[in-house]
Amino acid sequence: MKFFRLIRFRSIPIICLLASQAMLGQKKPENIVILDDVAVVNLGIETVEVDYQDFAETLFVIGRIEPIPSRKSVISSRIPGRVVKIHAFEGDIVSQNMPIVEIESLQPGDPPPQVSLGAPLPGMVMKNHTHIGKPVVSDLELFEIVDLSQVYAVARIPEDQAGKLSIGTKAEIRVAALPDDVFEGELERFGTEANTENGTIDALFIIENPDYKARPNMRVEFSILLNTKTQTLSIPRSALQTDGINRIVYVKDFELPNAFLKSPVRIGAQNESSAEVLSGLFPGDVVVTKGAYSLLFAGGGGISLKEALDAAHGHEHNEDGSEITAEQKSSRGSGDGTSQNEFSANSKMGQLVVFLAILSGLLVILLVLSIAFPRRPKERAET
C-alpha cells in the first residue's frame, strides 16, 4: 500500500518529463550558434583559417630606457669666473665642439679674457646647472649632455627565466609613449647583481634611436625571442575563449552559412599574439577571431536551425533540423493548401494533444489507485 501511495505523487514529475521529451522529439544541437547576416555585421565577426606556420616562443617583460654610460658627458671650467653667455638649453640637440657657454675669467684685463666651452660629445642637453651671471668654479658641472642615438632598454628578467637568454638574444621592444614604433634590440649584457626585492635581474638590450624619440626612464615592453618552432598549428589568441571550465574556439561550419560550432581545444605555448594548438583543430578549420567573446552570449543566434539548413541544402527541414519524411511530404502534397508554417503549427498542436492525453491518463490512473487503496486513519493508541 505504501508503494502505491508513494508513486502517486513522486512519479508525476518523472512521467511528465518523459512525456514532454517525447512531445519535443529530437534535441537541437547545443554547441552551434547560427546568426543572420545582420547579426554577423553587428557582432563584427572576423575569421582566420588555421594552418601550420612558424611559431615564436617569447617572454614578455617590462623595463625602462636608460642612457649608455659611455655616451654621457659634462661641461665644466678649469678657469674660475662668471657666466656671460649661454648658447644651448635643456632639450637642445648639439653637435660635438659646438659652443655651449662662455665664461668671463677673473684674470685682470680690459675687457677681462673670456673662454668658450664646447660640447665634448654630440647629443641632447639633459641638464643645465647655470645661468647668466652665475659664478663659476673649477669643480662645478655646468651642463650634462647625453648622446641618445643609441640607448639601453633594460628588461627586468625573472631569475628563473634568465637562463633562457644569452648574449645576442633578439627582442621586439615597444615604448609605451611611442605606440606606433617598434624597436629591434639585441642583448648586450646582464646587470651586475639581481634585485632581491622582486627576484629579477637586469638584461641590457641596445637599441638604435636616431631620432631621439626614446628618452631615459620611459617605460618599455619586451617580447624576447626564446625559441622558434617550425610547422606548428597555431591560432590568434583573440580566438581563445573559455566556457568557465575549458578553453574553446568557435569554428565556422563548412555547410551552414553564418553557423559557428563551439569546439574545445588544448593549448600549448603562447606568445603575445598567438597560441600553439595541441588538439581540437585541424588545418583548414576557420575560427572566429573578432567577435568570439560575443558568441558566448549569442545563444541560438538570429535564425533557427531549420532556416539555416533550408538555406544550406536547398530544401525544407523540420523545426528540429531533421529531414522531412515521405509521410510528411505526402501529407503536404494532398492539395489542402497547407503551408509549411501551418503544417509545423499543426504538428506542434498534435504533439500537445498527445501530451495532454498522456497526462490525463496518468491522472485517471492515480484517481483509480486512490479509490482502490484509500488511506485509512490510524487507530488511536490505547490509553
How would you describe the overall organization of this protein?
The protein has 383 residues and is of the alpha+beta class. Among the domains are: 59-67 and 150-230, Beta Barrel (Elongation Factor Tu (Ef-tu), domain 3), CATH 2.40.30; 70-146, RNA polymerase II/Efflux pump adaptor protein, barrel-sandwich hybrid domain (OB fold (Dihydrolipoamide Acetyltransferase, E2P), Beta Barrel). Helices cover 23% and strands 39% of the residues. It contains seven helices and 22 strands. The chain has helices at residues 2-24, 37-43, 159-162, 292-295, 305-313, 326-332, 340-372, and strands spanning 32-34, 46-49, 51-67, 72-76, 81-86, 93-94, 99-105, 114-118, 123-128, 135-136, 141-146, 150-158, 170-175, 183-195, 200-208, 219-236, 241-242, 247-252, 259-264, 266-270, 274-279, 286-290. Strand 13 (170-175) and strand 14 (183-195) form a beta hairpin. The two termini are 28 Å apart. Mean pLDDT is 82; it is low at 1-28, 335-339 and 379-383.
Main sheet summary: 6 strands, antiparallel, barrel
**Class computed from helices, strands and strand pairing:** alpha+beta
Share of helix, binned? 10-25%
What average pLDDT do the residues reach?
Answer: 82
Topology order in helix (H) and strand (E) letters:
HEHEEEEEEEEEEEHEEEEEEEEEEHHHH
CATH architecture of the domain at 59-67 and 150-230: Beta Barrel
Count the strands?
22
Termini gap: 28 Å
CATH class of the domain at 59-67 and 150-230: Mainly Beta
Query: In terms of quaternary structure, what is this?
Result: single chain
CATH homologous superfamily caption of the domain at 59-67 and 150-230? Efflux pump adaptor protein, beta barrel domain
Low-confidence stretches: 1-28, 335-339, 379-383
With strands numbered from the N-terminus, the spatial order across the biggest sheet is 3-12-15-14-13-16
So what's the overall shape?
A: elongated
With helices defined by DSSP (H or I, 4 residues minimum), what is the helix count?
7
Gyration radius from CA atoms, angstroms: 40 Å
The CATH topology annotation of the domain at 59-67 and 150-230 reads as Elongation Factor Tu (Ef-tu), domain 3
